Amino acid sequence: MLVPLSFLSFYASVALAHFIVPNDDQDMSGLVVNSIPYSTRVKYMRLANEALFEQSGPCPFAAYGTIIVNHTAADAVVCRGANFRTGDPTIHGEISAINACTKVFQERNMTASEIFAAWGELSIYTNAESCPMCASAIRWAGFKEYVYGTTIQHNYNAGWGVMTLSSYDVFQQSRQLPGWQTSMLGQILTNETDPLFSWQYNEVSRKWRYEQECMERLTAEDKV
Ligand SMILES: *[C@@H]1O[C@H](CO)[C@@H](O)[C@H](O)[C@H]1NC(C)=O
Ligand SMILES: *[C@@H]1O[C@H](CO)[C@@H](O)[C@H](O)[C@H]1NC(C)=O
Ligand SMILES: *[C@@H]1O[C@H](CO)[C@@H](O)[C@H](O)[C@H]1NC(C)=O
Asked: What residues does the CMP/dCMP-type deaminase domain cover (predicted)?
């Protein structure tokens, strides 16, 4: 069968458009939660991405980066984590950040009960929605806030093996737990987090889109 060329190029452009699976683009510029403006959310989500590159290099396959932030006064990043692929299946970015903060607090000679209480003052920023294991850890910790970028649904659509239980559902089923219900802010800065997860399971995207971005980051780092 003869297929007209115009059809082929149309098909190619449609296929290309789907290489980056977008989240629904919402204008959240007016979003203020716990008196923190959206611009601050954007700033810290970018820091979560940067923490990823600092820990895992410019083009990590497991592109999950997490920081834990004290917004109370100093707006300080207390610690950070990434999926280090050590072989320990529990070391996702969020768990590795929680472990890193626990160590920081122990080094400050805080008692176990002081450390348990500390999470309630802190915000966890992670560039992708937490899997059920990490969402549960976040809820057990009783973080003040949980802020994520790319959704589980996005990564499912992009070909990742995921557990399709949303953080929303984990939190809904956790309401009987004592302590604060963590405030959850999803889909923050997805225009910058989605591309980090969109290339791994797509050969053409891997070659054309992500490698270019990686090269830019490599070049920027080389210049330093
Ligand atoms: C923690 O305790 C140890 C042993 O008592 C002490 O040497 C160290 O200076 C303390 N660290 C801080 C940050 O207070
Ligand atoms: C957060 O910062 C405030 C103000 O500096 C400080 O009092 C508090 O101890 C910090 N909390 C944690 C968990 O580090
Ligand atoms: C992503 O969106 C934010 C607004 O939420 C904007 O400030 C930023 O420039 C965008 N990033 C890119 C890479 O286009």
From this structure: 39-163
User: Does ligand 3 have an atom closer than 6 angstroms to the CB of 26?
Assistant: no
- Start-to-end C-alpha separation, the chain: 55
- Sheet containing 145-150: order of strands: 76-82, 65-70, 123-128, 145-150, 183-185
Alpha carbons 162 and 2: distance in angstroms, whole number: 40
Q: Are 97 and 134 in contact (CB under 8 A)?
A: no
Q: What is the pLDDT of residues 106-145, one digit of tens each?
A: 999 999 999 999 999 999 999 999 999 999 999 999 999 9
Question: What tens digit of pLDDT does each residue of 22-53 get?
Answer: 566 678 888 999 999 999 999 999 999 999 99
Query: How far apart are the C-alpha atoms of 184 and 33, rounded to whole Å?
Result: 10
d(CA 202, CA 179): 42
1 lines ligand 2 (CB under 6 A): no
| 105 CA distance to ligand 2 middle (Å) | 11
CA–CA distances in Å: residue 3 to residues 6, 7, 90, 163: 9, 7, 50, 40
Nearest CA to ligand 3 atom 3: 189
Query: Which residue CA neighbors atom 13 of ligand 2 most closely?
Result: 118
What is the Å distance from ligand 1's center to 77 Cα?
22
d(CA 176, CA 61): 37
